[in-house]
Design goal:
Helices cover 28% and strands 30% of the residues. By secondary structure, it is of the alpha+beta class. The model has no long low-confidence stretch (mean pLDDT 89).
């Protein structure tokens, strides 16, 4: 877990082709202004960067998100990170959730969203997603949502029954259709992406996207080159806009240098 006293971290790795990639990131999770308990959890530890947004009565959501992040953290410690390893960790997380004495609510579960750097099966980013937390990518000045929400509202948008603008204020906006939980499948959706110099990722729970539009997220990335500055600006704006839910944010910068070239100096 990131040290809250030193929120910026970095890691340099050599890709299979010899290029060098340096990752710099910052992560935060905040209860928000209206919730008494933070049911979000975060893991930002090379090569895996994920957020989990728990749900369930009493403390069930907190247990679900913490159990899921704990299992993934153990997987990272053992290495390497693969899709098979992630799915095995999620199976164990579900067992942890089911066996916990305080997770009796049938609605207990958690979203899980993030990215990992895959250097074993071709150099690539792999995004993973269950639920409605999101991965955004800023590339060449354009911000895109990479993951697709597993939600009732997203299904209505995909069916052409709602516009994206109508979806933002729909009363079923919080209803998700997939989660890591006792009655759910635990296989995420995956998307592979090239490792491109200058890319910037935002991984976040819906506590951020309830308060900031995609444009707003892109705005703060462009205003702040460093991950910590961008993260802090987004968090402050989300709280100012209401902070209606728990808010979790990872901002991840990617620098790629060709084999044999000297990395740029700060």
């Amino acid at each position: 877990m990131p040290d809250p006293e030193s929120p910026t971290h970095s890691h340099t790795a050599t890709l299979a082709g010899g290029d060098v990639v340096t990752l710099t990131w910052a992560a935060v999770t905040h209860t928000g202004r209206r919730r008494e308990v933070n049911q979000d959890a975060v893991l930002a530890a090379y090569p895996l960067f994920v957020v989990a947004d728990g749900m369930g009565g009493h403390i069930g959501g907190e247990i679900a998100s913490a159990s899921t992040i704990g299992r993934l953290e153990a997987m990272v410690a053992k290495g390497p990170v693969t899709t098979q390893g992630i799915e095995k960790a999620l199976v164990h997380a579900v067992k942890d959730i089911v066996s916990h004495p305080e997770t009796t609510d049938e609605g207990t579960g958690t979203t899980l969203t993030g990215v990992f750097l895959d250097t074993d099966d071709g150099d690539a980013w792999v995004t993973l997603n269950i639920g409605d937390s999101r991965v955004y990518l800023l590339r060449d000045g354009t911000i895109d949502q990479i993951t697709t929400d597993h939600s009732v509202v997203q299904e209505l948008v995909a069916a052409g029954r709602l516009s994206p603008e109508e979806a933002e204020s729909h009363p079923y906006g919080n209803v998700i259709t997939r989660a890591v939980g006792p009655s759910e499948a635990v296989k995420p959706d995956y998307v592979r992406l090239d490792v491109v110099d200058g890319d910037r990722f935002v991984i976040c729970s819906d506590g951020l996207t309830k308060e900031l539009t995609d444009y707003g997220i892109g705005h703060f990335l462009k205003e702040h080159d460093d991950p910590e500055g961008a993260m802090e600006a987004m968090l402050a704006a989300a709280l100012e806009n209401g902070g209606r839910d728990n808010i979790t944010i990872i901002v991840l910068n990617v620098s790629r240098t060709a084999a044999g070239a000297q990395p740029a100096q700060d």
